[in-house]
Write a structure and sequence with these properties.
This protein is mainly β. It is 10% helix and 42% strand.
Length: 214
């Protein structure tokens, strides 16, 4: 479990094939900031651009770790199959502050950046989300973009997509990899866990003959 508060910006330094077919995944070598891996061990969970991965190898002296990512995960995420900057977040502890919102590290869909412009001291990020995720997106609701907990400012349903806008303060732009986005960039999206459970409660079929509140 995560909070969507990025604790470091790392870099995918190398990508290695785990096999020769499309059914094989990749091993990623990831460089981390100084001291980031001091309390990390093999088997720990770290979210990479919002996708929860397991540390399979560790070289603290070289400030790097490895993860193995399946072909299925590569197909359902963006930005994990090639070198480049990446948002990092360690799994939360029971006594940690919940600074963002509850994030599972499971990517629900891939969005596309449609605009990224500076407005005053901040930045407006506009995204086209898959239409199937539109019902989970609400004004002032939470969404995770490449692992970052953000607040939705506007929502507009289109024929095939739902477009949202998000305000990024300078601190977010400077301390995450979101500042490197540009129109056309693909991003990992995770909807709010609460929205997921609300939908389930509203749509689950009630057994025949069972009365509400029984």
């Amino acid at each position: 479990m995560f909070t969507g508060i990025i604790t470091g910006v790392g870099r995918i330094a190398a990508v290695h094939d785990l096999g020769s077919s499309l059914q094989h995944g990749k091993r990623l070598d990831i460089e981390a900031p100084d001291g980031y891996l001091d309390d990390v061990g093999p088997g720990d969970s770290i979210a990479l651009n919002g996708a929860c991965m397991t540390v399979t190898g560790l070289d603290a002296a070289r400030r790097s770790f490895t993860v193995e990512i399946s072909a299925e995960s590569l197909d359902k995420t963006a930005g994990l199959g090639q070198p480049g900057a990446i948002n990092l977040e360690k799994a939360i502890r029971a006594n940690d502050r919940l600074g963002g919102h509850l994030v599972s590290g499971h990517v629900d869909g891939i969005g596309t950046v449609t605009g990224f412009v500076q407005v005053g001291e901040s930045w407006e990020l506009r995204l086209a989300a898959p239409r199937a995720l539109g019902k989970y997106l609400a004004y002032k609701g939470s969404i995770t973009v490449n692992g970052v907990s953000l607040t939705v400012n506007t929502v507009a349903d289109r024929a095939d997509t739902t477009e949202i806008s998000i305000n990024l303060i300078p601190h977010t732009v400077q301390n995450t990899a979101l500042g490197r986005l540009e129109p056309g960039s693909r991003v990992n999206l995770e909807i709010d866990l609460i929205a997921r459970y609300v939908e389930r409660m509203l749509t689950a079929a009630q057994p025949a003959g069972e009365k509400a509140g029984a």
